[in-house]
Amino acid sequence: MTSTATASSVAEPPPALEVRKTGSGSALGRYILIRFLLIFPTVLILVTLVFFLIRLTGDPITAALGGRLPADQLAERIHEAGYDRPILVQYVEYLGRIFTFDFGTTITDNQPVVQVIATYGTATLELVLYSLVIAFIVGIPLGMVAAALRDRWPDALLRVSAILFYATPVFFAGLVAKLVFGVWLGWLPISGRASVRTELAIGRNGGTGIYLIDAIASGNPAYVQDVLLHAVLPALTLGLLTAGIFLRLVRTNVIGTFNMPYIDAARSRGVREGRLVRTHAYKPALIPIITVIGLQIALMLGGAVLTETTFEWKGLGFQLAAYLGSRDFVAVQGIVAMIAIIVAVTNFAVDIIAALIDPRVRY
Amino acid sequence: MTTSRLIDRMPVVHQLRQSVGLQRGMLVAGLVLTGIFVFCAIFAPLIAPYGYAQLDGPDGNFGAQQPPSAAHLLGTTVGGYDVLSRVIWGAQTALMVVIVAIAMSVFLGILLGLVSGYLGGWVDRALVVVADAIYAFPTLLLAIVVAIAINNGQSGLWPGIMAAAASITVVFIPQYFRVVRAEVVRVKTEAFVESAKVIGASTPRIMFRHVLRNSTRTLPLIVTLNASEAIATLAALGFLGFGIQPTVAAEWGYDLNKSISDVAAGIWWTAVPPGLAIVLTVLGITLIGESLNDLADPRLRARRRAGAAKKTPTPADAVAASQPASREMMGEVE
């Protein structure tokens, strides 16, 4: 709900509000329960959609190996994997296996998809976390500045740059960053998560897969520096583009709450403008921001695919693009299904946080 | 706005007159950039110095990765195509995809939203849950899966355009569905719908004549915002290798993908022009959409004079209401 909708619900409470108030005591508990149960249909719908769309073109083995194997071997492998059975039987079986967290085995390199996700997921997590931090640090304060100085030149400048960031595809921004800072200026490495020597050194003891933690654990500052330098360009690219979205969101919502009567009341009590923005207008505006951030994390997974491909950052997205290239649709299906679950759970968490912050949500 | 000549009430003209200052600047900049894009798209055969798949001219083969020169203002790509020509022709591909995608998603989204919102019942609830599920999913991943489904990822001109458009459509339908449905649910309780029922109008007639016409005012806004998203999605698909083959059409995302290795070697002219084309096109359309959005919302509109007509709820509210915030979903699903 954006501030707009909040404003109208304050003016005239919808009828549903009164009805739901009767169960007041455990309202939050009930909300969490229903919201939790909603995860299942969401995941089911997405997994079903992905399954049937991918199987529309035929069985995955022909797609991956067709033309490379003689017809009889191909048929044999299709039979072994059970792809010659009715599609509905396969679908039910697939659903059953998902419940046990079995997403199948990739065709091209014969690895369980869960293993692929565990290996490369940490790299994506690391990139998304860096980018989120940058997006928060840059996007939210600047959005507040833009709202406070509304329609003056800093606002105009910030809004135009936010739209510019929004309009720039993440892969093009990445290519330009590589060109300028990596090739022309030579300041930063342009690909990979760390140099080979560092990768070998910090990966020696297994490690967490999150390179920064591994590098710090190794105790060698040179490795930490190497890992951080490699992260600068990808994280800035994805982070700044997301910051543009946060900026627009914060600006619109803070301006929305700025028109509420209680802001006038606070102003007439002599609250300073800066404090007005920071505490009075910002907090109510936070709810829609949190909700959109939940959606944004889902979108960042899409952006991560492109960013990782641009910077050869060996994460889930890079791997997904590689599997797409080699037409390994079992792997694609597995990774996408896993992402569907992540998205559903993230949205659940975000809604619960929103409900905890804002009592209006749970009634 | 004392006169109510037709031209004043035309969608964009109306907003242009209504706008002042920065907002007008943004709207005009958006209109100019979009105008250039559409111009390039329509007149590509006349403007472009070469064909999009042309490898040799009168002086023989173009050569690969040639730096900009008089013959090739922006150089040639690694595949030996003229960069400038492919950028101009790329506008045509992008425009076609955007038109097909928007047309399909508007049609299907409105139809589903109207039927679902007006008739209600379990179909409505099921559709809302499905639309929310799809809406929350990363659009690019969904588009990839649809691209696989439609043409196995390879494509000629029309199959390619249709595949890209369909991938984008699937992503957009839930948005139109939500917006139209929310409006229909609101409109169907109005007195004029009841009157129509009383005088015995049939359900389809009420739906399409009375409710639909009063439920589409927010659409121009969403269409503009989606058009820019469509171009970005098309480019992203191309970048991941689901684009249209270079011999059948020019596509910016595909060209950018091929320029990844050029960049490491310091070759800028294969990456920057198609990338800038995407940025400027998306920027232009977004500026229009943003301005329309602000102008539609009285609280965001910069005013020339006090007391501008205040409509509630505004189209911007309806767009805001279309965001699948959980509590709405709860309200609708319970």
Textual characterization of the structure:
The complex is a heterodimer of chains A (363) and B (334). With 363 residues, chain A is mostly helical. Chain A is 78% helix and 0% strand. The relative contact order of chain A is 0.15. Chain B has 334 residues and is mainly alpha-helical. Chain B contains 15 helices and 2 strands. Chain B has helices spanning 6-9, 11-18, 21-47, 83-119, 121-136, 139-151, 157-187, 191-198, 203-211, 219-242, 252-258, 260-264, 272-296, 315-321, 326-333, and strands spanning 56-57, 60-61. Chain B has a two-stranded antiparallel sheet with strand order 1-2. In chain B, helix 4 packs parallel to helix 7, helix 5 (121-136) crosses helix 7 (157-187) and helix 11 (252-258) packs across helix 13. The relative contact order of chain B is 0.14. Mean pLDDT of chain B is 74; it is low at 305-334. Chains A and B meet through helix 1, helix 3, helix 4, helix 9 and helix 10 of A and helix 3, helix 5, helix 6, helix 10 and helix 12 of B.
SS content category of chain B = mainly alpha
Rg measurement of chain B, Å: 23 Å
The chain pair forming the largest interface, with residue counts per chain, is: A-B, 73 and 70 residues
Low-confidence parts of chain A, pLDDT < 50 over ≥5 residues?
1-24
Q: What is the CATH superfamily classification of the domain at 96-302 in chain B? A: MetI-like
- Structural class of the secondary structure composition of chain A? mainly alpha
The biggest beta sheet of chain B is recorded as: 2 strands, antiparallel
